[in-house]
């Protein structure tokens, strides 16, 4: 029994609608193109064509690469939207337009970052040698010398700041989430933490200097004062990051522990903190990376030294940010050795920050709760 009707022009049977026996629609690439979809190579093709045309225009104008990139971006955006609007319709054209704008914003944001990385790496590679990491500047006037004293001073001062700020920040966050939620004291602490997050770093340095100047007299400068200044900057970051991590712990875990008769303090120690250990460690590592490159508070509180000093309670200490600043701002004669050391110190500091960020990501991945 036939389920179709004969087509008058071709003699073939056409399916009868409404019987549930219709042939499924095909979605081959050929059909998609007939429906008005641009091929996958279209965006790159439009970009290449636009770049070639704009290169000719900019060459005729006698302009540089920057103007060529700007013209190419503008014309490419308009050409992509117009082509997609004609072939694919308004909805797909709007999607492609937003994609181009977001991608362009990302590339623009990457330009200064890549420029800084390239400049510091190329300029700092000249003195990136063994001498730079094994010698100090004691007795060095021109060429030679290194930043051993500055590297050690940075690690000592940052370590002291971390030792003081991590317990205070973590315990404050635990109080805000587990005990002080909704209380007047909790709201006051949250307010002051928000205020501390936005204070300039030089204010923290002046506060630490004024505090120790009142206690020990004016002109006091040693490593512990700088550690206190960095602690003021680091505590609000630790509090905020730890607080956000503790908030994402499901309340069901706490209630299950309470139902078993577990005290609240043990629930926090054995359930809440282990659940968010990866996130807390990541926030702490990022806070250390944030303060390790601070220059202004250390200029006021620590000063500069030319030799190794590992005692943070006696005498001035050198740090990488201050060492780089003074080498570049007040170079001696000849200038080139001082400038080379300044760029290399900046490169070493940048590498330390990058290593800390990588460590933070590894900690987050390793301690993240397993989903399978």
UniProtKB/TrEMBL annotation:
The keyword Ligase does not apply. Gene3D superfamilies: MetI-like. Belongs to the binding-protein-dependent transport system permease family. CysTW subfamily. It is found in: Cell membrane. This is Phosphate transport system permease protein PstA. The chain crosses the membrane at residues 41-61, 67-87, 99-121, 155-177, 189-216, 222-239, 271-292, 342-363. It is a multi-pass membrane protein. Residues 1-28 are annotated as: Disordered. Residues 1-12 have a biased composition (Polar residues). InterPro entries: MetI-like, MetI-like_sf, Phosphate_PstA, Phosphate_transprt_permease. Keywords: Cell membrane, Membrane, Phosphate transport, Transmembrane, Transmembrane helix, Transport. It comes from the Bacteria. Signal peptide: none annotated.
């Amino acid at each position: 029994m036939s389920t179709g009707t004969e087509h008058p022009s071709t003699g073939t049977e056409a399916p009868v609608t409404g019987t549930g026996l219709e042939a499924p629609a095909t979605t081959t690439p050929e059909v998609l193109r007939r429906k008005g979809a641009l091929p996958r190579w279209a965006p790159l093709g439009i970009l290449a064509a636009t770049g070639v045309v704009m290169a000719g225009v900019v060459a005729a104008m006698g302009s540089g690469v920057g103007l060529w990139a700007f013209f190419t971006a503008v014309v490419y955006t308009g050409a992509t939207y117009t082509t997609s609007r004609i072939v694919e319709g308004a909805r797909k054209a709007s999607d492609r337009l937003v994609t181009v704008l977001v991608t362009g914003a990302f590339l623009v944001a990457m330009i200064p970052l890549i420029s800084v990385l390239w400049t510091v790496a190329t300029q700092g590679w000249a003195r990136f040698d063994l001498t730079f990491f094994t010698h100090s500047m004691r007795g060095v006037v021109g060429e030679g010398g290194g930043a051993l004293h500055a590297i050690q001073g940075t690690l000592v001062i940052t370590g002291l700041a971390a030792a003081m700020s991590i317990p205070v920040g973590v315990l404050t966050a635990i109080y805000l989430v587990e005990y002080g939620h909704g209380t007047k004291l909790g709201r006051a602490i949250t307010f002051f933490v928000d205020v501390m997050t936005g204070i300039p770093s030089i204010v923290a340095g002046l506060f630490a200097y004024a505090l120790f100047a009142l206690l020990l007299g004016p002109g006091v400068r040693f490593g512990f004062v700088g550690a206190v200044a960095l602690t003021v900057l680091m505590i609000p970051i630790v509090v905020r990051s730890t607080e956000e991590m503790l908030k994402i712990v499901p309340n069901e875990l706490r209630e299950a522990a309470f139902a078993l008769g577990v005290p609240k303090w043990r629930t926090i120690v054995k359930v809440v903190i282990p659940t968010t250990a990866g996130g807390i460690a990541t926030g702490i590592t990022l806070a250390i990376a944030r303060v390790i490159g601070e220059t202004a508070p250390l200029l006021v509180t620590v000063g500069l030294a030319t030799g190794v000093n590992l005692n943070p309670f006696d005498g001035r200490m050198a740090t990488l940010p201050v060492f780089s600043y003074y080498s570049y701002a007040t170079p001696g004669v000849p200038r080139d050795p001082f400038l080379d050391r300044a760029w290399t110190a900046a490169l070493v500091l940048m590498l330390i920050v990058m290593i800390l960020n990588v460590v933070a990501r590894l900690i987050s991945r390793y301690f993240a709760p397993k989903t399978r």
